[in-house]
Amino acid sequence: MIECLNIWGIFLLLNYLTLNYCIYLNMNLILFILSTAGLTWILVLSKIFRPLREFITRKNSQKKSYLGEFLDGVFNCEGCMGFYSGTVVYVLQYYNIEFMLYAFAGSFCSLLFISIIKLINNR
């Protein structure tokens, strides 16, 4: 009887640890996704970076260069910037700089919720 309880206790402990680890991994994945989307939105679509995007486009149209075309392409493409944003977010997450990740995630979540509210109000 005692051996059965010990095995059951070990099973419950392993189950608890595995569940907590899965929740931790899922929260990191959710934070990664929201942060990447937020950083991409800030860099490609926000008013804050509009002067930089226009400067890059203007310089690229005046003098064609590989770097200019690359930056112009990246700053005007959500998918392209999403790749590099994901890389930046991964590095921030690896070095445990979470305050920036939460800022990017907050940016995306506020944009998402405001868009949903505007969509509901327009119906």
Provide structural commentary:
The protein has helices at 2-45, 50-62, 66-75, 78-94, 98-121. It has 123 residues and is mainly alpha-helical. The chain has one domain (32-121). α1 (2-45) crosses α4 and α1 crosses α5. It is elongated. The model has no long low-confidence stretch (mean pLDDT 85).
N-C termini distance: 65 Å
According to DSSP, the number of beta strands is 0
Number of helices in the DSSP assignment: 5
What is the H-and-E element order? HHHHH
Q: Tell me, what's the shape?
A: elongated
> Radius of gyration in whole Å, from Cα?
22 Å
Q: What is the typical, i.e. mean, pLDDT?
A: 85
Q: What percentage of amino acids are in beta strands?
A: under 5%
Number of structural units classed as domains: 1
Q: Helix- and strand-based class?
A: mainly alpha
Tell me the major beta sheet.
none
Low-pLDDT runs of 5+ residues are none
User: Helix amount, in percent?
Assistant: over 70%
Characteristic terms for this protein:
mainly alpha; 123 residues
Short account of what is shown:
The protein has 123 residues and is an all-alpha fold.
List the SSEs and their pairings.
Elements: H1 2-45, H2 50-62, H3 66-75, H4 78-94, H5 98-121
